[in-house]
Specification:
By secondary structure, the chain is an alpha/beta fold. About 55% of the residues lie in helices and about 10% in strands. The protein has 14 helices and ten strands. This is Antigen peptide transporter 1.
Length: about 475
Amino acid sequence: MLKLAWSHMDRGAITSRVTEDTSTLSESLSEKLSLLLWYLVRGLCLLGLMLWGSLSLTMVTLVTLPLLFLLPKKLGKWHQALAAQVQKSLAESSQVAIEVLSAMPTVRSFANEEVEAQKYSQKLQDMNTLHQKEAVSYAVNLWTSSISGMLLKVGILYIGGHLVTSGAVSSGNLVTFILYQIQFTTAVEVLLSTYPSVQKAVGSSEKIFEYLDRIPRCPPSGVLTSLNLEGLVEFQDVSFAYPNRPDVPVLQGLTFTLRPGEVTALVGPNGSGKSTVAALLQNLYQPTGGRLLLDGNPLPQYEHRYLHTQVAAVGQEPQLFGRSFQENIAYGLIQKPTMEEIIAAAMVSGAHSFISELPEGYNTEIGEAGSQLSGGQRQAVALARALIRKPRVLILDDATSALDADSQLRVEQLLYKSPERCSRSVLLITHCLSSVEQADQILFLDGGTICEAGTYQQLMERRGRFWTMMQAPGGSGAPE
């Protein structure tokens, strides 16, 4: 699942598949399936003994078997369909719960607790209704099997009595046959009662295999691990549309170059496709048109771990893990860094100042998803996590929006004045236009295309879209 494209990621459905469906399948395989196989073998042995005792009575039994199997099979399909609906309903309710719990501050700030609670309650009621229908279908299936077995016993006694009266079968053989037939019927009843559980497992396995059988849209890892990677990135007529909305282009004919030693700023209005450019450069998606090259080679040709060591990104809302600062900063590295390297990266990002004040320092647990940290602290830790890799391509996607003034100044010095500047290409995506004045080139993106390109001075003299944005409130060129 970790290899699927982002468009496949429905957390509620995945949670249901990983927990409920796998549990249902595991129970059926460990208990029900073994029971099914045991009674199947036992039933076949009893059938052989019945044939040896009385061929005519055995034929009567076998003639009625299709009736015993046919109706439960039809009911079993009904039960299977309901079981699949229950699993789907469970996935939907899980999705609501996960979404609300992960966005609890937003829910509370908009005083929408009651609405969300009602929405979740409605999902649970829908699931409960389906559970009741599933229970009814199971009971009907079970009672049908029991009644069918009882009718078979009555039929055998009636026909056997006539055979004994006519002298075709002795009373001793009839008693022996009935004993075998009772055990045989019991085996059939167990098989029929177990069948719905197996059908339910089939319904669960179908949901599981929907994920296992999916072919990841992201291509498999390549093999390139260049030791002399320079960090030259080329977007050549790149177009892109998200897989779940293929008719809505996000990027169209994008062409530009990120050069080693240069900072390229990507600016533009919200929804213009800036973060999509960052996602493509991280190989999270594949272009629907054009080519994206790193040192002249398509990104998918690089070995997965190597690529993400050389291309590092920091987002506006970085994801941290419920581990220590040390583990978060060193996250994903094959070779464990030294403590000195971790501290050095944290000092550059501004994280060392608040980490060092904690009693346990870098061994302090940061809480689930960094919940014990402020937004600026999370960004500082994420920046340290990127810098410790010494990447050839560094992507900052509004990565300083929550930092204080001193930390933002430190990041600007890192971008424009640090000795490591010449060794990496930087893509700076930001809404803080004052931070792009020193950029080597500025690209103004709107509607998925580059409208303007040049240095800060060139774009200001041109008085185009960039100049207009600078004059807007919040732009550094706005009048006092």
